Amino acid sequence: MNMERQKAEAVMEAVLFTMGESVEIARLAETIEESVKDTKAILADMKERYEREDRGITLIELEESVQLCTKPEMYEYLIKIAKTPKKYVLTDTLMETLSIIAYKQPVTRLEIERIRGVSCDHAINRLLEFNLITEVGRMDAPGRPLLFGTTEEFLRNFGVKSLDELPELNAVQIEEFKQQAEAEVQLQLDI
Amino acid sequence: MNMERQKAEAVMEAVLFTMGESVEIARLAETIEESVKDTKAILADMKERYEREDRGITLIELEESVQLCTKPEMYEYLIKIAKTPKKYVLTDTLMETLSIIAYKQPVTRLEIERIRGVSCDHAINRLLEFNLITEVGRMDAPGRPLLFGTTEEFLRNFGVKSLDELPELNAVQIEEFKQQAEAEVQLQLDI
Amino acid sequence: MAIPVKLEAFEGPLDLLLHLIEKNKIDIYDIPIVEITEQYLDYIRQMDTEDMNVMSEFLVMAATLIDIKCKMLLPKEVNEEGEEEDPRAELVQKLLEYKMYKYMSFELRDKQMDAGRSLYREQHLPKEVEEYRPPVDYEALLADVSLSKLQEVFRFMMKRQEDKIDPVRSTFGRIEKDEVDMDRKVVYVEAFIRSHRRFSFRSLLEKQHSKMEIIVTFLVILEMMKLGQIDIEQQDICDDIIITSKVMAAG
């Protein structure tokens, strides 16, 4: 028999609190002996309650996992008292490389270099080190080049639940680019 | 002016969550800009609420400090989740790294990277975690790099009694590769 | 007027080009190639870099600009559909693509700043729980893995390494693996010293056929100097090094 609803919430809170890191929803479901679907429903309820004013922590979803974290509005109080977590200083080079990987994944080193116009070995190695990207396979092409993609750490770091939530190049801008392009089919050759 | 009661509770929860260890009540009082006495009163209220059935964590007081912790009755679930074997996958990267270590052992990280053409820190760490490989010593070379080799667990899981039983990559085959490579070069010359 | 700019300020040649376009307030689709090329070259002239890899990337872009400049002076090329082809089109495409990702990288940085305001907690297992180590389920882990697969992967990789020879350069002919034996080189250098007594380092290097041989020869010379078998003089940095045999002089 399933454990009661309240108990299930308590168990998941205890597990998430203890683990610290993200826990797959499937594992939580197993622990509370519920289906993944029901577990998600319970988690949604929990999140709703965490969002109330007297709570300092909340739940975040990362693909098929969840994790406990402090609410962003608590930050100013936390930096006063708690040791701030190690912050990655991402240089422009790293940011550019990372954004190409984020939006074009899975992507090869060569493709990144083609877009940026410069080599990116160093940047890729740093991003791998920070665990923001990972090798996701090899391309079925000569030399079988490695393909890179982003990690869960990336999602956490950038505050998005899944890749679908990445900020989009807004429609207005894309449209503008397109119109410009069309208007310029015949570029004026003004040397 | 003092912050509101609800806010104070949220801030303390966030602080206690982040700090992990115990926090002096005096420090919490400072953070929420209340007297120690009032802070204690708020904490008592919070504890009462944590004690309800749907919560997995609670507050414990230690001298003049407090700490968030898992409720003891949750341990059995924590153990249960800790016991569930994690779903691990032997990715291509791991497989490649493992095969190099199996056939070239004892081998340094650098040598593996030379063969694979990419860094392999992550792969090595995972294989160590799986107990499929182990550190077998250090090379007598500058920097005394670590040498890796396979474990008994590796032998057991691949059903071989000793490393001698690994399928051989015989000299004939190696010669074949070379000839193939040369033939390919020749082909390109003919074009 | 010299503009004090460091190469490091730019992410690469495209970044520099974008900077120039933005500085001149030019429509990206309508780049006045002549002006931009001149400004670009100005920047490159001021660049103070010893990193050939970085420099070459900028030079490639400069060459591309000059190439476009030349093409624009020539009669316009017409494609299959009879449309005039703008030599700048490809560059514009590239710039736009780069610009888009650069823009997105700023967006992402904002996201990161916001996300950085949530803190997490380190794993903290109660003692009773900590004693349990999650077992590795080898059966699941190694389900599709067999010895022959392991061997196959290894063979594949060794082959890939063989194939890694640059497809262009490999057509130049066989690439031989340099195998230079230090001991044999010592014998060789000793013989050379016996027959020359006093000679220039360069004359010795001229007889070496590969980079590896040169390196090993250099190491042998260093070793002999350390052992006091030879004397070394050099007038000025980059001058030839004169080597004199001490052993022979004594004997």
Radius of gyration of chain C: 31 Å
Oligomer: heterotrimer
Number of helices of chain A: 9
Number of strands of chain A: 6
CATH second-level architecture of the largest domain in chain A: Orthogonal Bundle
Could you please say which CATH topology of the largest domain in chain A applies here? Arc Repressor Mutant, subunit A
Largest sheet of chain A: 3 strands, antiparallel
pLDDT < 50 stretches of chain A: 184-191
Q: Please give the domain count of chain A.
A: 2
| Total beta strand runs of chain C | 5
Would you tell me which CATH topology of the largest domain in chain C applies? Arc Repressor Mutant, subunit A
Task: Characterize the biggest β-sheet of chain C.
Answer: 3 strands, antiparallel
Counted up, domains of chain C total 2
Category from helices, strands and their pairing of chain A: alpha+beta
Brief summary of the model shown:
The complex is a heterotrimer, with two copies of chain A (191 residues) and one copy of chain C (251 residues). Chain A is an alpha+beta fold and 191 residues long.
What secondary-structure arrangement, pairings included, does this model have?
The complex is a heterotrimer, with two copies of chain A (191 residues) and one copy of chain C (251 residues).
Chain A: H1 5-19, E1 23-24, H2 25-32, H3 36-50, E2 57-62, E3 65-70, H4 75-81, H5 92-104, E4 107-108, H6 109-116, H7 121-129, E5 133-138, E6 146-150, H8 152-158, H9 171-183
Antiparallel strand pairs in A: 1-3, 2-3, 4-6, 5-6
Helix pairs in contact in A: 2-3, 5-7
Chain C: H1 13-23, H2 33-46, H3 52-73, E1 77-78, E2 84-85, H4 89-115, H5 127-130, H6 138-141, H7 147-163, H8 182-196, E3 198-200, H9 201-205, H10 211-226, E4 230-233, E5 242-245, H11 246-250
Antiparallel strand pairs in C: 1-2, 3-5, 4-5
Helix pairs in contact in C: 1-4, 2-3, 8-10
